[in-house]
Design goal:
Shape: globular
Bound molecules: zinc ion
Number of strands: 12
Number of helices: 9
Order of helices and strands: EEEHEEEHEHEEEHHHHEHEH
Radius of gyration: 19 Å
Strand order of the largest sheet: 3-2-1-4-7
Structural class: alpha/beta
Amino acid sequence: MSSPGYTVGIDIGGTKIAAAVVADGSGEVIGLHQTPTPARDGPDAVIDAAVTAARRAIAVAPGAVGACGIGTAGTVDAAGTVTHATDALPGWAGTDLTERFSRALAMPVTVLNDVHAIGVGEARHGAAAGCRDAFVIAIGTGIGAAIVHDGRVITGASGMAGSIGHVSVDAPMRRRCSCGRWNHLEAYACGPAIEAQHAAATGETIPLPEIAARARAGDEAARAIIAAAAGFLGRSLAQVATLLDPDVIVITGGVASLHDLIASPLHDVVASRAMPGPNRARLRFSRLGTRATILGAASAARAARRGP
Ligand SMILES: [Zn+2]
């Protein structure tokens, strides 16, 4: 079977849905459509909005679209059913996305968790291109990651592999994580955690970009809070470097925009904490941005058509 010329990729998040057609060879993104996620209206409305966005992208594809890849918020099993989702998408858990989208779009469908899709996208077209082993960590309102080997994401037995936001950190204080457990990395280093720490220290509630701007201007409180988050992150990434020995660790998501503030401390912590030896894990910051999910989902769908 000859490879199709184009694949449609869909990114389903708690606040927005995006879809585009991806040219199989070059990774060119064509006909990008974005729409707010009608999360409160339930899974049927979310699927309808995603199918509409995909059809709009397919309508402007220069050639035949042979497959669909989806990167979605939530945990996904090997068959493409959402097995767990947060309150951001009420009722999403239990939805068989493979069945719903293959019926609506009349083409083969591959479904990944959105951070897993980002990992594949970075490995295929982004900061991990050309690397055999990559660890891609997305730090935004939460923290997730993808372990990618030879362009394929390692999903784990239940689809949760890479959940580095929910590993324990050694901290003198107790902070509750979004998952309900205590002292997970996410509670110390995601965007809202940095904002909460700034508010607690200064009494001022301001968004992450403003905290970063103050740090760049020399504000001591802002600098200390960002440095503390980078310390927690660096210690966790040092464990990743030792455990997985990746070629590259890619940092993406909203907190990646602080790269000028955190790159150097992160590098120092990883270098001083990881096991010494030939370990060469390099830290890179992503430039693909939100396109990574669509590119990765499309790439996974293409790979599924080709078979193992
Ligand atoms: Zn957690």
